Model the fold of this input.
Amino acid sequence: MKIFKINAMVAILSGAACVGGQAVAKDYKNISIATEASYAPFDYKDAGGNLMGFDIDLGKDLCSRMKVECTVVEQAWDGIIPSLVAGRYDVILAAMDIQPAREKIISFTQPYIRTPIRFIAPAGSPLLEFKSDLDSLALDDVSPEERAALDKLGEALKGKKVGVQVSTTTESFMKELLPNVELASYDTADNMILDLNSGRIDASLSSLARLKPLTEKPEGKNLKIFGPNMTGGPFGKGTGIGVRKEDEQLREMFNKAIAEAIADGTMKNLSMKWFGYDATPLN
Done:
């Protein structure tokens, strides 16, 4: 029977077993999955304390396809990669972007979704009057026109405080491409939105897959999305599942399951359910 257990208190040790000093390949009948549990609609807790969200549903589907028993481990974001490397769990399924700095430490599956990054501010904010000369910025190789658009964005944010979650691609983007804008870093996205609603910060930025559903909920009803759709560069190649570099067999198992979920429309259905639009990668 295929089982997907959710237990925030359990962390299963992973990696190769050793017999007589020799490494033996793992059969992967049991896989432990780390998630953050505070980044709706990807992963969060409902009123009863149950883990919910896109990544939770996706994990159930992928584990079923791979015919393995999976256990979800709750992990704070700032320690999620070090704990993977240390062997506390097998994979990270937590809305993690495939980004070069992370790829130096761990490996990733193919992207399972791709979603642009946008800014958000309270209704009535002068920032909502900002109009970018470009609707989309692909930041892998910033053109003079894109640099000019970023400079215009930086000028609009001058004197404002922008919230970012610590150790994220949005934090990297702000420090790398808008270094003169004042930042406020948060341990969780939920705390960032609390401060945005209370006026302690002027704006924040996150993936459209998070922001669009947020604006349709009570805690986001006074918030509006603005600015260009931004992809690539500091934001990486899309959202993937993180694995240790030595666990190539496990990575390929997930790649196969992800490809199947994309091909049969499951990824589209899940993204429509949780984000309100199709975030399936185009290639």
Notes: Residues 1-24 have pLDDT under 50 and may be disordered. The chain has nine helices and 16 strands.
